[in-house]
């Protein structure tokens, strides 16, 4: 774009070509001819036209305006030749706003408002003009007259806002624009009130005492060009006349000026439109939610009875500043944050100026939260405007001064773009043009007076500024809450004085920390770490703490983070990874703020943290195949002759794999089936490693017997959880020339050493080997030969022992021997003709006894994941009874997995598909919940807790979409209740 008019050699100006003027429309030359702008006298005018955001649009609007003016166009043309201010304002307006082009075409004489020295009228002047017009035009013409007055005033403001810089005419600052728009809205509301009172009350009925309270951006005097105006009505008497006046005011204002919205009133749209002051006070004292107090931050008496409006503010504002003491303040704030994020469709999130990441709402929400937290003790924060509040927060030390200035600049830049987008068609929008629409983005850049910077054109500069400001807002959004906290504990790093300890604890409490004093101690320890570590932590912590605040237990998360950081103090890659890979840091915070199980594993297997990032094929946590890990574990243990060293090597790989599985599980990367398979795989590998190591240690030459380990229960079903023991049986077969007793004695020694070796106390999750499902239980021999097992099952096996065999599967040791064991027990667990009615009755009797006796004292039968109503035991017993009864007919039921058997049961039609789905859903829900209990608590437990932070964490760990423990528990109860109905029908049939 030219910076000055080109001159020919003669010194006389020449008429520039349409191309040089930025005109691309094919009608441009004809339009210039029609306007008579083809003489040397019009050169300066044409260069002013070229500076419009869309010169073609401005030229088309001028054609329409000239046609509307008719003979009077000559006066406008003459004024444009001499009045540079008029040129800048008119062309700036028409090039950026199609809507005001339409307005001038309909009201052509309004151009005069842009001529000469133009200034904005004051608040009182505006109100007087609107009120006088309302009184003089109370009849049928009122709407048209007042709409034109409103649009004229809006046009003048927009023209001054859009005009290029003119000498002696300063650029309008954002606060000036927002405040004038609010003043204009007040004047319009005052006129609407005058019209409403005249229409409803007439000359005979006294006007009611009614105050209109402005809310939202209008209340804060930072209104948009196009915005709903939020209002609340308070009256001396909330009678029918007053309500009719309020309703008429809203109707007239909405039809004439802008949409008015009273949805912020008590009870929202379902509540009374008008309330007395006493009714308002009673509602806010008893029923109001946190968001309603947050909304009141911007309440301002706008029009109507000034005394009543002032009384409203005086009565309610003290409640606003006490809102942070409400019991539900923290969960309400967290819910509001989530709700804002969920409002934006994913496909337009990057284009949303208001609700997108790094958008306007991020700034406003953060500022309002800090006001609510600290405003009770610091009256300087009791202001309505976002910009004023940021300044006050910076001055009070609650936000760094530089941060406040940077955030203010970004906020005003984003609001400027919002204003330009709305002015184009006077439509309410917060959506940027699509990123590939260069023309629309170029128009926006010019309308916002974005200039080339020597390296990029205006379009490139705009895109760069958008990215920079979005990133800055996102970064400062976290820093806003936490940097002053770090400064309050960071004297060792030579920070300036931050907020007081009391203010810091107050802010941490509002962000979800239940022990803010301890949290400050942890922050101090991290930020004041020696050398570069403390400096890096200070950079990282604002963002990390922001992510932690969204976890179920920020206090535990911060403590865990401190433990991990101190344990990895010498690992140079640790902080560098968190700094350079945000995905790693964010995932780590989610894990640390949810689980007591994983942090200790990460401390002892820190290399897993490096897998928290993303690789070419997705999350690195999923790069590992559980079966490959199992083979590696067995191979690593086999390198050591000493059993203890072999098991130490196995434990190391197990620890790493547990950390990987649990992390991926908590981050929602694995299904319940995948978790169970991976946990089973690692348990089997540990068993194999221990067995191999002990056999090597107890054998001089060839071992006297073959040994097989038979997995039972969930191990045999390949459905282990985090807290599961390994239920096993040991079977041996003498090698040639060895007596049975010698083989059994030797194998018993091996089995006992395996159990002892694995059961040795360790910092890792325990490795308990349980052999109580063997024949005769605890009283029976630990090891039997294959023939001994067969003899026992033929003569002595009880119903429960046969049932237990349904999940028997070879897992370790001699695979051939294990396979022959399974073939042998098939005759007992899958009898050719099924089981007798007597056996069915016996199994039902045992189940009833289990239900009555095995549930722990004090346990809630509705929420015990294993033995409770519709829990794991109910479903597994039901499946096993169907296997015993029908496996001889359906070979697919020769399967140790509960889930896979359910698939077969549905396939062959033993139970209806809908009922099978209820059983399957309940099993998956109960298993996920049981696993989550271990992940959250750090040790096995089967009982879901009552409402509270622990339940919220279990919900997150179990894959519930948010930390609403109540909703999670309701779902669990519903799912298991439905499953129990099916269990009663099938198991009891």
Automatic annotation (TrEMBL):
One of its GO terms (biological process) is regulation of glutamine family amino acid metabolic process. One of its GO terms (cellular component) is cytosol. Pfam families: GlnD_UR_UTase (PF08335), GlnE (PF03710). Keywords: ATP-binding, Magnesium, Multifunctional enzyme, Nucleotide-binding, Nucleotidyltransferase, Transferase. Residues 125-311, 586-822 form the Glutamate-ammonia ligase adenylyltransferase repeated domain. It is an enzyme of class 2 (transferase). Its EC number is 2.7.7.89, 2.7.7.42. Involved in the regulation of glutamine synthetase GlnA, a key enzyme in the process to assimilate ammonia. When cellular nitrogen levels are high, the C-terminal adenylyl transferase (AT) inactivates GlnA by covalent transfer of an adenylyl group from ATP to specific tyrosine residue of GlnA, thus reducing its activity. Conversely, when nitrogen levels are low, the N-terminal adenylyl removase (AR) activates GlnA by removing the adenylyl group by phosphorolysis, increasing its activity. InterPro entries: GlnE (IPR023057), GlnE_rpt_dom (IPR005190), NT_sf (IPR043519), PII_UdlTrfase/GS_AdlTrfase (IPR013546). The keyword Endoplasmic reticulum does not apply. It catalyses: [glutamine synthetase]-O(4)-(5'-adenylyl)-L-tyrosine + phosphate = [glutamine synthetase]-L-tyrosine + ADP; [glutamine synthetase]-L-tyrosine + ATP = [glutamine synthetase]-O(4)-(5'-adenylyl)-L-tyrosine + diphosphate. Residues 335-481, 847-986 form the PII-uridylyltransferase/Glutamine-synthetase adenylyltransferase domain. This is Bifunctional glutamine synthetase adenylyltransferase/adenylyl-removing enzyme. The lineage of its organism: Bacteria, Bacillati, Actinomycetota, Actinomycetes, Mycobacteriales. Residues 494-989 are annotated as: Adenylyl transferase. Residues 1-485 are annotated as: Adenylyl removase. GO terms for molecular function: [glutamate-ammonia-ligase] adenylyltransferase activity; [glutamine synthetase]-adenylyl-L-tyrosine phosphorylase activity; ATP binding; magnesium ion binding. The keyword Nucleotidyltransferase applies. Its cofactor is Mg(2+). It comes from the Bacteria. Belongs to the GlnE family.
């Amino acid at each position: 774009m030219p910076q000055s008019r080109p001159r020919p050699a003669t010194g006389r100006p020449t008429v520039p070509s349409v191309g040089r003027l930025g005109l691309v429309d094919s009608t441009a030359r004809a339009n210039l001819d029609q306007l008579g702008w083809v003489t040397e006298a019009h050169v300066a005018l044409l260069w002013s036209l070229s500076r419009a955001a869309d010169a073609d649009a401005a030229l088309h609007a001028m054609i329409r305006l000239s046609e509307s003016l008719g003979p009077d166009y000559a006066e406008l043309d003459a004024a444009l030749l001499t009045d540079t201010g008029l040129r800048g304002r008119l062309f700036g307006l028409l090039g950026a706003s199609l809507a005001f082009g339409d307005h001038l075409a309909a009201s052509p004489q309004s151009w005069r408002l842009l001529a000469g020295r133009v200034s904005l009228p004051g608040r009182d002047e505006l109100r007087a003009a609107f009120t006088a017009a309302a009184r003089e035009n109370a009849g049928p013409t009122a709407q048209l007259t007042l709409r034109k007055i409103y649009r004229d005033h809006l046009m003048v403001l927009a023209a001054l806002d859009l005009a290029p810089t003119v000498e002696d005419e300063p650029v309008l600052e954002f606060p000036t624009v927002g405040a004038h728009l609010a003043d204009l809205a007040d004047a319009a509301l005052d006129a609407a009130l005058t019209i409403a009172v005249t229409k409803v009350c007439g000359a005979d009925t006294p006007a009611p005492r009614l105050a209109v309270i402005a809310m939202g951006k209008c209340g804060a005097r930072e209104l948009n060009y196009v915005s709903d105006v939020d209002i609340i009505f308070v009256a001396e008497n909330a009678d029918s006349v007053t309500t009719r006046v309020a309703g008429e005011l809203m109707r007239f204002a909405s039809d004439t000026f802008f949409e008015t919205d009273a949805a912020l009133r008590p009870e929202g749209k379902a509540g009374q439109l008008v309330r007395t002051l006493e009714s308002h006070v009673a509602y806010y004292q008893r029923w109001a939610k946190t968001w309603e107090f947050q909304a009141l931050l911007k309440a301002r008496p706008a029009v109507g009875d000034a005394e009543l409006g002032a009384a409203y503010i005086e009565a309610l504002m003290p409640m606003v500043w006490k809102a942070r003491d409400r019991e539900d303040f923290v969960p309400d704030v967290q819910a509001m944050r989530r709700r804002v994020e969920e409002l934006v469709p994913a496909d337009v999130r990057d284009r949303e100026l208001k609700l997108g990441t790094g958008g306007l709402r991020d700034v406003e929400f953060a500022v309002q939260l800090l006001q609510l937290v600290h405003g009770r003790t610091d009256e300087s924060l009791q202001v309505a405007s976002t910009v004023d509040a940021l300044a006050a927060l910076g001055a009070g030390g609650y936000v760094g001064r530089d941060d406040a200035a940077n955030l203010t600049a970004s906020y005003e830049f984003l609001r400027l773009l919002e204003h330009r987008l709305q002015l184009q068609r006077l439509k309410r929008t917060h959506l940027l043009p699509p990123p590939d629409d260069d023309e629309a983005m170029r128009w926006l850049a010019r309308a916002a007076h974005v200039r080339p910077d020597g390296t990029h054109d205006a379009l490139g500069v705009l895109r760069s500024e958008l990215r920079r400001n979005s990133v800055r807002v996102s970064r400062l959004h976290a820093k806003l809450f936490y940097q002053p906290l770090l400064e309050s504990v960071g004297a060792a790093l030579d920070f300036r004085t931050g907020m007081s300890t009391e203010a810091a604890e107050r802010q941490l409490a509002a962000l979800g920390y239940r022990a803010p004093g301890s949290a400050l101690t942890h922050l101090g320890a991290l930020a004041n770490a020696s050398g570069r570590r403390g400096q890096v932590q200070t950079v990282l912590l604002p963002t990390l703490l922001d992510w932690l605040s969204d976890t179920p237990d920020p206090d535990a998360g911060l403590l865990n983070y401190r433990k991990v950081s101190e344990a990895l103090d010498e690992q140079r890659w640790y902080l560098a990874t968190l700094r350079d890979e945000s995905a790693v840091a964010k995932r780590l915070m989610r894990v640390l703020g949810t689980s007591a199980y994983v942090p200790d594993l990460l401390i002892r297997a820190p290399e897993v943290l490096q897998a928290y990032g993303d690789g070419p094929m997705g999350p690195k946590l999923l790069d590992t195949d559980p079966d490959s890990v199992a083979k590696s574990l067995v191979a690593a243990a086999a390198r050591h002759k000493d059993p203890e060293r072999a098991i130490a090597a196995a434990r190391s790989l197990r620890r790493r794999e547990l950390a990987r599985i649990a992390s991926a599980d908590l981050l929602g990367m694995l299904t319940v089936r995948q978790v169970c398979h991976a946990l089973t795989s690692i348990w089997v590998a540990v068993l194999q490693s221990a067995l191999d190591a002990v056999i090597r240690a107890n054998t001089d030459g060839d071992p006297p017997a073959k040994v097989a380990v038979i997995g039972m229960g969930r191990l045999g079903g390949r459905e282990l959880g985090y807290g599961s023991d390994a239920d096993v049986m040991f079977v041996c077969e003498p090698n040639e020339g060895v007596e049975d007793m010698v083989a059994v004695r030797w194998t018993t020694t091996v089995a006992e050493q395996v159990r002892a070796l694995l059961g040795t106390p360790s910092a890792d999750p325990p490795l308990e080997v349980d052999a109580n499902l063997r024949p005769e239980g605890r009283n029976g021999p630990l090891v039997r030969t294959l023939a001994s097992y067969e003899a026992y099952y033929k003569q002595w096996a009880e119903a429960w022992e046969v049932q237990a065999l349904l999940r028997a599967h070879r897992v370790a040791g001699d695979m051939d021997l294990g396979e022959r064991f399974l073939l042998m027990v098939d005759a007992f667990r899958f009898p050719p003709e099924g089981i007798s009615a007597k056996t069915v009755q016996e199994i039902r009797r045992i189940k009833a006894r289990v239900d009555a006796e095995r549930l722990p004292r004090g346990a809630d039968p509705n929420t015990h994941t294993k033995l409770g109503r519709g829990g794991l035991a109910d479903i597994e017993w039901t499946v096993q009874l169907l296997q015993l009864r029908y496996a001889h007919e359906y070979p697919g039921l020769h399967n140790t997995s509960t889930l896979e058997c359910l698939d077969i049961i549905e396939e062959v039609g033993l139970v209806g598909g809908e009922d099978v789905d209820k059983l399957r859903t309940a099993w998956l829900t109960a298993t996920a919940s049981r696993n989550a209990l271990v992940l959250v608590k750090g040790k096995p437990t089967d009982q879901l807790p009552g409402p509270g932070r622990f339940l919220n964490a279990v919900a997150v760990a179990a894959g519930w979409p948010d930390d609403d423990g109540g909703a999670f528990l309701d779902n669990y109860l519903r799912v298991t209740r439905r499953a129990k109905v099916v269990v009663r029908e099938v198991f009891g049939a």
